[in-house]
């Protein structure tokens, strides 16, 4: 009985981690698209800098999630 419960928890955890990964991937695509638009305008330098920082943070979060997915 306990093994069924733990295997169910592992499955749910795996699904959650994959869902989060897909969310971060989509957010990264959105940031890249916004960065392309912002880089065309000289008036949006601050926004471009913010987007660059967010893209780096997103990549770090993705790497951490991939590590968790491998462990699970």
Order of helices and strands: HH
What is the radius of gyration computed over CA atoms, rounded to a whole number of angstroms?
17 Å
Q: Assign an overall shape.
A: rod-shaped
Mean of the pLDDT scores? 92
Low-confidence stretches: none
**What number of structural domains do the residues give?**
1
How would a textbook summarize the main sheet?
none
Proportion of residues in helical segments: over 70%
Helical region count? 2
Can you count the beta strands? 0
Q: Please state the structural category.
A: mainly alpha
- Strand percent estimate: under 5%
Q: Ends: how far apart?
A: 20 Å
Description:
It is built from two helices and no strands.
Write the SSE topology.
Blueprint: H1 2-39, H2 45-71
Helix pairs in contact: 1-2
Question: Features of this protein?
Answer:
72 residues, mainly alpha, 0% strand
Summarize this entry quickly.
The chain is an all-alpha fold. The chain is built from two helices and no strands. The chain has one domain (2-71).
């Amino acid at each position: 009985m306990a093994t069924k419960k733990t295997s169910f928890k592992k499955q749910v955890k795996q699904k959650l981690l994959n869902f989060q990964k897909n969310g971060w991937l989509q957010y990264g695509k959105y940031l890249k698209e916004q960065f392309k638009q912002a880089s065309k305008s000289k008036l949006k330098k601050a926004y471009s800098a913010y987007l660059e920082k967010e893209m780096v943070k997103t990549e770090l979060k993705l790497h951490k999630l991939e590590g968790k997915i491998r462990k699970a």
